[in-house]
Amino acid sequence: AYAAVDEYVKNKMVVGVGSGSTVMYVVERLAERVKQEKLEILCIPSSFQANQLILKGSFFSKKKIKWLFF
Prior knowledge:
By secondary structure, the chain is α/β, with parallel strands linked by helices. It has three helices and three strands. Strand 1, helix 2 and strand 2 form a beta-alpha-beta unit.
């Protein structure tokens, strides 16, 4: 999951966050990269559960990342 985030996520990108077995690692790595590299990304969780995981963990600064949930 970390390698995929490192390889594919770029600044100003829209990122879909799934709800599979590695979602926690994806969210963790996204948070690290946002903090370290000052990335600005728009994340779209694929499920209510993914959205709750992100919100519960408070992984992201609201200034650096936007979350869109329908």
